[in-house]
Structure formats: structure tokens, C-alpha cells
Specification:
This protein has about 325 residues and is an alpha/beta fold. The protein has two domains: about 130 residues, 2-Layer Sandwich (ornithine cyclodeaminase, domain 1); about 180 residues, 3-Layer(aba) Sandwich (Rossmann fold). About 35% of the residues lie in helices and about 25% in strands. The strands form two sheets. Strands 1, 2, 3, 4, 5, 6, 7 and 16 form an eight-stranded mixed beta sheet that branches. The chain has an eight-stranded parallel beta sheet with strand order 10-9-8-11-12-15-13-14, sandwiched between helices. A hairpin with a 6-residue loop joins strand 6 and strand 7. Helix 2 crosses helix 12. It starts with a strand and ends in a 7-residue tail after the last strand.
Length: about 325
């Protein structure tokens, strides 16, 4: 059993944003072509009121193709951690042998989860704004995910020059600006306090909050806005129905009280979803922008992306001799 710690994972993935985006794109293509197995995620919630916002999610997945991989991610989301000064999410990934099914690697998963999420967002931003790439982005929610999204956006959109930052905690937004400047020095990052004005000024918006229910619409957005709806529960059902919608998997994203789940209940169907990202990448579907109608990208966060990136990390770690190997893990 190979155990890969956070430091090992970070070492392998640092500075490889473009490779990770390409890996995510190829995995989406395989998923759209039916070469994956992806059961619904399992949500573990708790009966106590003090844990009402907490959950642990299990994501089993298999990616086929030339480099098949199977395994499971077990990721905890405890929003209260943020106020305590620790990260909201923690995760571990188990990779299984496709020869005998035995576990072969145990990988720290929070870094992988954040970077595959950011790569998915950046990939969508690049594809959905290809005709008119933006030079700025509005990041709503000043946490780990939007920091990674900014890093990956800078790789996917070379013309990106500025990032407006909004958070309900203004001090958090100010501190986040310093972290952005350090992580992505080529992009000018600055906090904003008027959300409506910022929405009207930026054609690219990234939503990565801890919201458990809708709290905003898109009425303040400009006529050519692309929204990366990463946290999935920020937008009202009406705003989803009024937008052009791209998803990673319609069956996965229209559940668990996401904004799209609420939209399907309100509308009685899923016709509001225009295309999956994999079909756009494969050229089997197209998306036509309508003036005045925003485009919303809502990725559920498919476990197959975690498996693909974890296997990428495992292979590179093996080559570099990283990690801790535990012999006899499965022995009696």
C-alpha cells in the first residue's frame, strides 16, 4: 500500500495547471462517451442540530480508456471549520487494483479535490468564452476553492488581468486579496463591497461559497455573463430556468437540493439543461449564446475526476519515490 500525504500530492501537482485541465477535459470526454462507471454519491448527514450543515460524501468511480482507474473518494465538509481557522473540507482517496480489486494507494484527497474542481471551472470558462475571452473575473466566496480557481483561470485564460473579490466577511475578502496576489501575481486582485455593481461589471463570475440554499439571482449581471456555479446552491431556481445551462452530468447535478434540483421541481423536468460539458468538448452538442441570457456552468463534481487525478499523482509519485509504502497491509 502506497500512502501519499498532502505534501506529496502538492509536490506532484504544483505548476501543472495546464496538464490537469487537459486531464479533466479527457475524462469528461470519456464520461460522455460512456467509458466510465459513476454511481450516485452517498451523503452521510447527522441527526444533531449542531451538525446540521456538516456532511461526509462518498464518491465511487471508474474511468476507462487507455489508462483505467477505479476507487473512491471520502470527503468531509464541515463549514464551521472556517470560523475556527481550519479548512472546510478534508478528504482521502482509495485506489484499487483492476487486476484483483485490492487497494493499492491511499491518497490525501483535499488538494486533489480542490484542483480538479478548479480545473473543471477553468476548462468551462475557456470553452464557454472562447469567442470573447474575459480579462477579469468576479470571485464570490473567498476560500480555498476560489483561490485554486483563480490559479487555474490564469492558466486557461492568458488575457486575465484582474479579479474582484466578494465575501460576506469583508475582512476575509481583504486578506484573500493578499493570498491571491501571492498565488497569481499577474492578476490584480482587489475586494469589492457592492455585489450588484460587481456582477454588472464582470462577464465571468465564480461562485464558490458554503451556501446551503439559494441566496441570489442573476438580474444584476450583464448581457454576456458566464457564471461558474461551483457551489451549486447559490442561485434561485428561477435564475437557473432563465439561463442557458451547462452541467457535467445532468442526473448527478439534479439532486440533493442543488439549485438545478429545485429548478427541475419547479419546471417539472430537465429541459432547461442545454448540454453536458463532455458533449461540448466532443463536438456532439453545441451551445448558442442568446443575447441577454447568462450561461451557467454547474458541475456536480464527478468522482471520476478525482480518480483520474489521483492516479496521475500515484504514477508520478512512484516515479519520484514519494510517499510511504506500507508492506503487508493486506496480509493476515
Amino acid at each position: 500500500m502506497l500512502i501519499l500525504r498532502r505534501a506529496d500530492v502538492t509536490d506532484v501537482l504544483s505548476g501543472r495547471e495546464t496538464e490537469i485541465i487537459d486531464l479533466v477535459a479527457e475524462t469528461y470526454r470519456l464520461h460522455d462517451a460512456g467509458q466510465t462507471s459513476l454511481p450516485h454519491s452517498t451523503f452521510l448527514r447527522f441527526p444533531e442540530e449542531r451538525h446540521s450543515r456538516d456532511r461526509i460524501i462518498g464518491l465511487p468511480a471508474y474511468r476507462g480508456g487507455e489508462r483505467p482507474v477505479a476507487g473512491m473518494k471520502w470527503i468531509a465538509s464541515f463549514p464551521g471549520n472556517v470560523a475556527a481557522g481550519t479548512e472546510r473540507a478534508s478528504a482521502a482517496i482509495v485506489l484499487n487494483s483492476l487486476d484483483d480489486g485490492r487497494p493499492v494507494a491511499f491518497v490525501e484527497g483535499a488538494v486533489i479535490s480542490a484542483r480538479r474542481t478548479a480545473a473543471s471551472a477553468a476548462l468551462a470558462a475557456r470553452e464557454l468564452t472562447a469567442d470573447n475571452p474575459p480579462t477579469g473575473v468576479l470571485l464570490i466566496g473567498c476560500g480555498v476553492i476560489n483561490l485554486e480557481i483563480l490559479r487555474f483561470l490564469a492558466a486557461a485564460l492568458p488575457g486575465l488581468r484582474e479579479a474582484a473579490l466578494y465575501d460576506t466577511d469583508t475582512a476575509r475578502a481583504e486578506a484573500f486579496a493578499e493570498r491571491c496576489a501571492e498565488a497569481v501575481p499577474g492578476v490584480k486582485a482587489y475586494p469589492v463591497t457592492e455585489l450588484s455593481a460587481a456582477l454588472g461589471e464582470h462577464r465571468l463570475v465564480s461562485l464558490a461559497t458554503t451556501a446551503a440554499q439559494p441566496h441570489m439571482d442573476l438580474s444584476a449581471c450583464g448581457p454576456d455573463t458566464t457564471v461558474l456555479h461551483i457551489s451549486l446552491r447559490d442561485l434561485t431556481a428561477e435564475s437557473i430556468l432563465g439561463a442557458a445551462n451547462v452541467v457535467d452530468d445532468v442526473d448527478h447535478v439534479c439532486r440533493e437540493n442543488t439549485s438545478l434540483d429545485l429548478a427541475q421541481r419547479l419546471s417539472g423536468g430537465r429541459d432547461f439543461v442545454d448540454a453536458p460539458i463532455g458533449a461540448l468538448l466532443r463536438g456532439t452538442a453545441t451551445l448558442r449564446r442568446t443575447p441577454g441570457r447568462p450561461v451557467v456552468y454547474s458541475p456536480f463534481g464527478l468522482g471520476v475526476l478525482d480518480m483520474a487525478l489521483a492516479e496521475f499523482v500515484r504514477e508520478e509519485a512512484e516515479r519520484r519515490g514519494l510517499g510511504v509504502r506500507v508492506e503487508g497491509f493486506m496480509s493476515a
